[in-house]
Design goal:
The complex is a heterodimer of chains A (380) and B (346). With 380 residues, chain A is α/β, with parallel strands linked by helices. Chain A folds into two domains: 5-62 and 175-254, Rossmann fold, CATH 3.40.50; 67-172 and 264-309, HypD, alpha/beta domain 2 (Rossmann fold, 3-Layer(aba) Sandwich). Helix content of chain A is 39%, strand content 17%. Chain A has helices spanning 10-23, 37-45, 65-68, 71-81, 105-110, 121-130, 147-159, 174-183, 185-190, 203-208, 214-218, 231-246, 266-275, 306-309, 325-329, 361-369, 371-379, and strands at residues 30-36, 56-63, 86-90, 114-117, 135-142, 165-171, 197-200, 223-226, 252-254, 276-278, 281-284, 288-291, 295-297. In chain A, helix 2 (37-45) links the parallel strand 1 and strand 2. In chain A, helix 2 (37-45) runs parallel beside helix 16 (361-369) and helix 7 (147-159) packs across helix 13. The two termini of chain A are 41 Å apart. Chain B contains nine helices and 13 strands. In chain B, strands 8-10-7-11-9-12-13 form a seven-stranded mixed β-sheet. Chain B is globular. The longest helix of chain B is centred in the middle third of the chain and has 18 residues, at 112-129. With 346 residues, chain B is an alpha+beta fold. Chain B starts with 23 loop residues before the first helix and ends in a 13-residue tail after the last strand. The chains are: A alpha/beta (380), B alpha+beta (346). At the A-B interface, helix 1 and helix 16 of A face helix 8 and strand 13 of B.
Chain lengths: 380, 346
């Protein structure tokens, strides 16, 4: 497959693996957090862990929008979908995300709620045009990558004067979450987890550029390498991070230069700024309330804001106390450290959010990597 | 006096509730459309059932329901699929498929012209598979109670003397053979889904595999432990199922698994793994290592096994994992699919 196979070349990959092995100092650990779920998925799917020396450890970060969505927001969506006039349009991986008391959109749909899986915002607009007697709500979710399409969709709806269309906005921002992780007591005070550097987001950075990460290099002294999602991208980014650590550098480097620039995509940023504004704070599963980390529609577009149109009240739900998703999302624990992992919590019956999306740390480890647990057990 | 038999207006007409009522309209539909398409001596006798001779040896029986959406897709339609799917389930026992039954649940308003096209495809598929559709049933439900048409087909076949394909026959060291490229059917269906449509030249691989199976059995004899057709859930589901049932594990080589570039690209786009995507004209065989070469050669000599490949082996594993060396150099599990990748794929 053109433009994909080139970035999955085994010989080059093995060469990069050799370089990482020879350059990583065996006397010290290297702990890198890949922020994005896309990176987590690639690491697991291509088995990259097997190609890294033992002292280079990847910590799976919170960059899976489905995983960090708090159960309360799912409950709010379910309540909305249960209204007889509403058709709720969602991306497929949201369907099984657990809300409170085992509820999910999939179960709500089975009970009669009109929940439609869509692949793009265009589908939601089409459904709104085809069903004027219904209220169409698009469950908008995602980081900076998926926010511009939602903005464009709202523009379309405005242009087409759609009166039966609104957005349940759950868009969140990457840099505030990275900051929250670095400032969390686990990492700052107790030192339960150390992060030497970040594999920086791929698609998010196409939109926002590399500039917003400079604060992490300058103020937090962390190495950052923006990386593409292909396995060669990741191996090269890890090598670049090893080199930064070895040379005591903390910089923002751009491995994904074929797509990412320092300034990002000005048009996309402009669209987002026109339509959205910051929330004071937004709740993230695992991270709690993170200041200025979520977006909502500006007052000018309030008529497209489902939270206003349907007077939705904010629901807060406590996570299962045994679930370690929070610590896993902060990189403090590994999936296997959770008592629920692989026992009551599997991709078929997810208890925590990390088990739901294939980009979640637990689901990725369960689906692709759990055979290593047995190898480790044997080794110990 | 013989009653006048009104011809079914195939070009302009559509199914209404009277066509399922047991009255004259139903009789006309059956004789004018289904008998015409499936024409054989058993149906012609018009009984509520059909009798047939039972040969020596053991018989296999299977049934499958077809609810695919859309009904017409590149490379086939629900009719041909309903024959191929059931014929293949029989063939996977190493059996020769003989007779099918077919049940139609039709939504009021379904066009005769579409129904005829589907019935004709079934007739042709049955003929080329060497099976006869010898009994059937027609029901009509109100508009909105079925999405156009659902078909169920049951079938019987004859197992050659001494053969008993089953997962518990698998042994450590057995080879895993597949008959060709993976994911073609699923991608062909997805490319036509209303909310997904994308351009691709991929057509469904829907086809009857009994002839390929016969050649394999001739080449491998009792060295063939079992065969399965990796339909819903793809190769991943089939191998996990066999691993559980045989209490073994499997070790695969990703580089050896054939996937068409168009299928790989579509899967990339949709975030799917070709190993989880449905096939309707492929089989996986677990084969003793001493006959694997001969069976693979026989597969490759057959038009339906041109791209056949040896993709891995059975290994001892208490956890019954299906593991794979990725083409990039790492290792991973090939797991069951979680949740529903795509409803109504067959």
């Amino acid at each position: 497959m053109k433009y994909a196979d080139e970035f999955r070349d085994k010989a080059i990959g093995l060469g990069l693996a050799r370089a990482i092995r020879s350059e990583a100092d065996p006397q010290r650990p290297y702990r890198f957090m890949e922020f994005c779920g896309g990176h987590t998925h690639a690491i697991s799917r291509y088995g990259l862990e097997d190609m890294l020396p033992k002292n280079v450890r990847m910590i799976h970060g919170p960059g899976c929008p489905v995983c960090v969505l708090p159960a309360g927001r799912i409950d709010m969506a379910i309540r909305l979908a249960e209204r007889p006039e509403v058709i709720l349009c969602v991306y497929g991986d949201l369907m099984r995300v657990p809300g409170s008391q085992g509820a999910s959109l999939l179960k709500a749909k089975a009970r009669g709620a009109d929940v439609r899986m869509v692949y793009s915002t265009v589908d939601a607009i089409r459904i709104a045009e085809e069903s004027p007697e219904h209220e169409i709500v698009f469950f908008a979710i995602g980081f900076e990558t998926t926010t511009p399409p939602t903005a464009v969709m709202i523009r379309h709806a405005e242009k087409k004067q759609l009166e039966n269309f609104s957005v349940f906005c759950n868009h969140v921002l990457t840099p505030p979450a990275m900051q929250k992780i670095l400032e969390s007591p686990d990492i700052r005070s107790i030192g339960r987890a150390e992060i030497d550097g970040f594999v920086g987001p791929a698609h998010v950075s196409i939109v926002i550029g590399t500039g917003p990460y400079e604060v992490f290099a300058e103020e937090f002294g962390k190495s950052v390498v923006i990386s593409g999602f292909e396995p060669l991208d990741m191996m090269q980014a890890i090598l670049m991070l090893v080199r930064q650590v070895n040379e005591h550098r903390s910089e923002v480097e751009n491995q994904y230069s074929r797509a990412v620039t320092r300034g990002g995509n000005p048009r996309a940023k402009e669209e987002v700024c026109d339509i959205f504004e910051l929330r004071d704070a937004f709740e993230w599963r695992g991270l709690g309330l993170v200041p200025h980390s979520g977006l909502k529609l500006k007052q000018t577009y309030a008529r497209f804001d489902a939270e206003i149109c349907f007077s939705m009240s904010e629901l807060r739900v406590a996570d299962n106390p045994a679930c370690e998703c929070g610590a896993i999302l902060r990189g403090v624990k590994k999936p296997v450290d959770c008592e629920l992992f692989g026992t009551v919590c599997t991709p078929e019956t997810p208890m925590g959010s990390c088990m739901v999306s294939s980009e979640g740390a637990c689901a990725a480890h369960w689906t692709y990597g759990r055979f290593r647990d047995r190898q480790r057990k044997r080794a110990s | 006096m013989k009653a006048h038999r009104r011809k079914v207006d195939i070009k302009h007409g559509c199914v209404d509730l009277s066509h399922g009522s047991g009255g004259r309209a139903m009789s006309q539909l059956i004789s004018g459309l289904f008998h015409e398409a499936f024409g054989n001596e058993w149906l012609a006798r018009g009984n509520d059932q059909s009798a047939f001779d039972v040969g020596a040896g053991r018989m296999v029986m299977t049934i499958d329901g077809y609810v695919v959406s859309p009904l017409f897709f590149p490379g086939g339609n629900i009719g041909s699929l309903a024959v191929h799917g059931t014929v293949n389930d029989i063939a996977m026992a190493g059996a020769r498929p003989l007779y099918l039954s077919a049940s139609f649940i039709i939504e009021e308003g379904f066009r005769f012209s579409d129904l005829k096209m589907i019935a004709d495809s079934m007739g042709q598929a049955a003929q080329s598979a060497g099976v006869h559709i010898i009994t059937g049933d027609t029901k009509v439900v109100e508009r909105g109670k079925a999405d156009g048409l659902f078909i169920s087909t049951a079938g019987v076949g004859l197992v050659p003397e001494g053969f008993d394909f089953s997962a518990e026959n698998a042994r450590v060291g057995d080879r895993v053979l597949i008959s060709g490229t993976l994911g073609d059917h699923g991608v062909a269906i997805m490319s036509k889904r209303q909310n997904l449509a994308f351009e691709t030249e991929i057509v469904s691989d829907s086809v009857a595999l009994h002839d390929l199976v016969a050649r394999m059995v001739a080449a491998g004899g009792h060295g063939i432990r079992l065969m399965r057709d990796p339909t819903r859930g793809g190769l991943a589901a089939t191998l996990n199922e066999i691993a559980q049932q045989s209490e073994l594990g499997f070790s695969l080589q990703q580089e050896a698994i054939p996937v068409k570039p168009g299928v790989a690209a579509a899967c990339e786009l949709l975030g799917l793994d070709p190993l989880n995507v449905a096939n309707e004209g492929k089989l996986v065989a677990i084969v003793s290592p001493d006959v694997a070469g001969a069976v693979l050669a026989a597969m490759r000599a057959h038009p339906l096994g041109r791209d056949a490949a040896d993709i891995g082996e059975a290994v001892p594993d208490d956890h019954h994992f299906v593991q794979m060396a990725t083409s990039f150099g790492g290792a991973r599990i090939v797991d069951w699919l979680s949740g529903e990748q795509l409803p109504r794929i067959c």
